Amino acid sequence: MSNGKLNGQYEVLSPWAEADPVALRGLKAPRLTDLTGKKIGLFCNIKRAAGPILTVIERKLKERFPISEVSWYRGRSFSVSEQDPQNKEKFEEWIKGVDAVILAVGD
Amino acid sequence: MKYLVYDTIFIEDSNRPTVTLAYQYFANDAMSAASSRGMPGVRFVPESIVSECSVTKEIEVGVSAVMDDIVAGLTKPLTAEEESPKPKEVEKPSRIIFKGNLEEINRFFYQRGWTDGLPIIPPTEEAVAEMLTGTDLSPDHLVAELEPRLGKATVEKIAINAVMAGALPTYMPLLIVGVKVLSTSPMADVWAVSTGSWIPFWIVNGPIRKDLHINDGFGALSPGEIANATIGRALGLITKNIRGVRKGIEDMGVLGNPGKYSMVIAENEEDSPWEPLHVEHGFKKEDSTISLCFPNSYQQQHSYATDDKGILNTVIYNITPGRMGMLGIILTPVNAKALASRGWTKKDIKKYIMENARAPRDHYAGYYAGGEDKGDPQESVPLFTTRPGQPDPIQIYVVGGWGSWTGLLSGGQGITTEKIELPANWDKLVAKYKNVVPTYAKY
After folding, report:
1. In this complex, is the C-beta atom of A78 within 8 Å of any C-beta atom belonging to chain B?
2. Which of B237 and B26 is assigned the larger pLDDT?
């Protein structure tokens, strides 16, 4: 096509859609000074590896730190958010009850 | 991945520190999801545990390698960038994006990641104006904002992508509703980007099938008709260019799928002995509709025999236990009539398959999950289970030419159907493009 054939000139429109800018926000939650005495949340969705990964993390955390407690939260599905109305209240309550959260999807 | 990231952000917004593990090859996907929700500083720990790993020892090794990072993620003080991320530059794309010849335009669009690899028709002002004759809506009418990028699917952007795909203006009403379905289907944003490389499979019903010459007969799933080829292609380009789905970043399909180029059929309603799909889903027969579901595998089976027993056993014995989700059965008119003439309705067929499709327990993924005893590996267990509120796990489509083959579409959850609204000048439009059909040379 570079030998002079099909050489008509065209002005073309952009197919790329506009999108409103997303306002960025930073992390506000202060990090923990250490894990001693803290209650650690483990958030697990239903993908196959998520639970086993967090089980190992739980054991290793307990080996390394005198953490007070571990609290598990099992999501309904990898394809829905726990912020959906039917789960949000339960999710919020769980978050309030922990000092920090480790999440794993298993992907 | 993205819903886990959204929940991570929610936890951070609830004033609790988080750290999120992501398989190292999915880090871009995780970052994209975090940025799209305005919190790019979310702390991820890339790990080396194979996606969906089921081997305990490998998980142990993978976690051990990142334990220090996990602890640091929860305890290391926030950086200035994490606390106050720099604003991204606001995109101000030019409406006219390029000038050049056919080759240069194709090269430019391809290098921007705006095509599916096949050549495109240049979306000139004139070509887009002609495409816009296919709708009464104004070019700046916002049809939807599409996840994950929340790109604005205006009528003009839909038309531009339709021109690129080679679509005709008469496809615009269908494409506009297709975009709405992409924005409302509960599974569209997940299945379109999942590791399983799910295909957006579009089924068209009602009078518009004939107006657009959508092939519902011989070779309906093969290349050869503009409508079947470009409707799916246009919606695929819209997925890239409006939704912002990028391969290997948001679209984490591991193997990919040729069906993503275009998988569009119409039901062969005239030769079906049953009510068409859209009537089954509550629409009137005279309505035109488009339906969307997300299978990821397509197989064809020659009928074991051409009576009801032979056809149904062909289905039952070829359903894969490893599929994820629903089953779509494509019956040719021949097979559909063979069943209907022996008294079978769609409902009967679904019930029969539900009750009789079985496989040994160790043919299912669940058997290999850790934990409790799973029972006798050779025990025959049902391939389908129903739960209240779950979508119908089996759909039946009557499509194809006159032969005794059956198509099985495996996977996906649920099907979404929407009515297509036509513009006031529809009959004139249809008349204008009615001769755009292939007429083969005689030899």
Report:
1. yes
2. B237
Distance CA(A103)–CA(B21), nearest Å, equals: 6
Q: Looking at the domain assignment, is residue A26 inside a domain?
A: no
- DSSP label at residue B247: B
The DSSP symbol for A30 reads P
Q: Can you give the length of chain B in residues?
A: 443
State the nearest Cα–Cα gap between B68 and chain A, in angstroms.
10
- pLDDT tens sequence across B179-238: 999 999 877 877 888 889 999 999 999 999 999 999 999 999 999 999 999 999 999 999
User: Residue B248: left (phi > 0), alpha (psi -120 to 50), or beta?
Assistant: left
Length of chain A: 107
- Nearest residue of chain A to residue B29 (CA atoms): A107
DSSP structure class, residue B206: S
The tens digit of pLDDT for each residue in B123-182 reads 999 999 999 999 999 999 999 999 888 999 999 999 999 999 999 999 999 999 999 999
Q: Which of B321, B33, B10 is nearest to B193 (CA)?
A: B33
**CA distance, residue B39 to nearest chain A CA (Å):** 5
Query: Structural domain of residue A72, as residue ranges?
Result: 39-104
Count of domains observed in chain A: 1
Q: Which residue of chain A has the CA closest to B71?
A: A35
CATH numbers and ranges of domains, chain B: 2-83 (no CATH), 102-296+417-443 (no CATH), 297-364+378-411 (3.30.1330)
Residue A89 falls inside a structural domain: yes
Dist CA B228 CA B202 (whole Å): 9
Q: Range with the lowest mean pLDDT among A43-52, B314-323, B366-375?
A: B366-375
Residue A75 lies in a domain: yes
Q: Which two tokens stand for residue B370?
A: 């850790």
Of A14, A35, A92, the CB nearest to B71: A35
Confidence of residue A1 (pLDDT cuts 50, 70, 90): very low
